[in-house]
Write the structure tokens for this entry.
Amino acid sequence: MFLSTRLWKEAPLSLRMMHKYKHLFTPLVLGDTLFRNRIFAAPLGLEYYPAENLHPGDDFIAFYERKAQGGAATVSIGSAMVDNARGAIGPTIRLDDPSALAPHYRLAQCISRHGAVADIELQHAGANAYHSKLGLGNEIYGAFDSINGLGMEVPAMPEEVILETIEKYGDAAQTARHCGYGMVTVHAGHGWLLHQFLSPQNNRKDRWGGSMENRARIVVAIAANIKKKCGPGFPICIRISGAEIYAGGYDIDYGVEIARQLDGHYDLINVSVGVHEAPEVFTHTHPSMFLEDGANVKYAAAIKKAVRHSKVAAVGALAEPALMEEIIAAGEADVVMLCRQLLADPDTPLKAQAGREQEIRKCMRCFECFSGQFMKLSTYCAINPEIGFERETRYAAPVVRHKRRVLIAGGGVAGMQAAITAAERGHTVILCEKNEYLGGILRCEAKVPFKQNLQKYLDQQAAFIRKSNMTLHLKTAVTPALAKDIQPDVIIAACGSRPLVPKIPGIDGPNVLSAEHAFMHPELVGERVLIIGGGLSGLELAIYLSMLGRKVSVMEMSGSLNYSGNIIHGMAINNEIKHHQIEIITSTKAVAIDERGVTGEFVGDKFSPPPLCGTIAKGILTSAISEARLERDEAPGSRIHYEADTVIYALGQVPLREEAHALSDCAPLFFSIGDCVEPKNIYTANAIAYTIARDLGRY
Ligand SMILES: Cc1cc2nc3c(=O)[nH]c(=O)nc-3n(C[C@H](O)[C@H](O)[C@H](O)COP(=O)(O)O)c2cc1C
Ligand code: SF4
């Protein structure tokens, strides 16, 4: 590392005051997603790095990965085109091209493997789509008839193009989600297309202009389209200008009215300021050194007061953890967004969390970075020579500067990997597991013949742990009191998850089991079995029980089975379903359980996932997706009683977030990994566990 900060001669980490910035490091849930703290990396677009076909290349990816490593809760890629043909101001990365899938998947992975949520900004420049007009020779539109910054006359967007554009935002979001982004930000500020619609200058006479409600209609419709295509739990953020702050532009009162229209439609409202077509306010949008710290927080605070459902983010000239803590503590915003500060020092969040704020390199707001974008098509930082050269440092495992005492709570997949990696890197590791065995929930499949390689893998990890010099305590749940007794420098919570118990009348009956229990005790399962839930766990259990001679049915609410994206495994499962003659009952919701079975209600397509948009469909091997689905021609609402001796629910896992969070104040540095953040797959659990443990010891 050629820009290592000075080694500070101080008291050991564990003796210093813990968690000075409590509010800043309180996690936040948006939609269904857990964000590890309140420091978000603001959207930052790199105009010059995209490689082939305007897709992220290796330098581009390394630039964003470096921020994720520094502890921010989310890292936002800046502007990405939703409609390159009509919306591009310059050659910019794009989400409307099937060949974007692989590079974006890699980029999102490289961010999320550090435990940060990858976010991407959905952008359409509207009247200012110079590249689409001049470079590509296409017709461009604004929200209303206007003359753009280059003096071109730009007509108002016709109704059919508006409707198409709404779909394109939804498709771009779905593509982003498919690639692994955990959130999208809809850009409706700084003068771009959606800002043009929201502007008081939008005096269209149709339903897209004139009144405040009409001006906001497209932005509300975009939120609905994204939720429809990505699911209600997928978090969406919107960036607006809280005020235009140039003479004649709208003020914060109008900004508050905009926010009221968006309230509840977006999970997070990110309050920036200004319009890029008014050059005089550019250095307010990106506050110059002549403005005070947190210059634009007041706009976010006014909006925070006015909205009831959405969370609010403040941005602009934020570098001091104490100020950020104050903003969150005072309720002026729920989130602080940092852009240039994370160029000056991508480790700002980690250093603040570890109580090493004196080591944070503060952004001088000198604009070397931004000017570089315009003048040299490059982004470098005046005080952080690592920026722009991230690849040089990315692949070397960082030197362990401080050997730490690391307590790991939970010995499942993620906890074991974190323990092994941390011990290999020379830290003192104490691994506690509440059960009498290592391996976590996957040990319930110990007897399943086709899961024996998985069990061998778990055994091997456990053997590595036993052979290492770490301390292992089985039958030991980590309570806050125990954690404090152990006095670790770092806690990694890997507390796991518990089965989701559906609220169905009869669920407490003696003939009902969870999937986990049924895997462990198949002898309790009767002759005829009905499994509620057609995801991987329910389907694999169905195959296992069929192998043991049971007659099995699987009931699934959606119109098709859910292979969690693992379509090749899904193909193998389909073969087994046919082979064992497992009955598949799709589009059916279990509404009651009794001693003789389950009453199912036909729900049609109500719970089916949205169809794949063209971008994804063209970019993946759709022919490889084969589905076991039941063709039915009844009307939604009709009910059938399905006979079964045993009913099993396999509806997924609930993360033990509270249990993990209870430990967050018991050591100077805290991380949570694995199922207690979000139950996903083994790959994800291991990637995050490895990366976080590998990076320990920098603070
Ligand atoms: C180099 C650079 C690129 C940026 N790119 C984008 C972008 O693509 N989209 C966007 O909404 N904002 C962009 N911004 C604005 C930032 O997100 C942020 O709002 C602004 O810089 C103020 O925050 P700061 O004071 O922490 O830098 C960019 C800022 C910089 C410095
Ligand atoms: S170049 Fe200047 S303005 Fe940009 S991040 Fe570095 S210190 Fe801040």
Q: What stands out?
A: The first strand starts at residue 28 and ends at 30. Confidence is low (pLDDT under 50) at residues 1-17. The chain has three domains: 14-394, 405-499+654-694, 512-616+625-651.
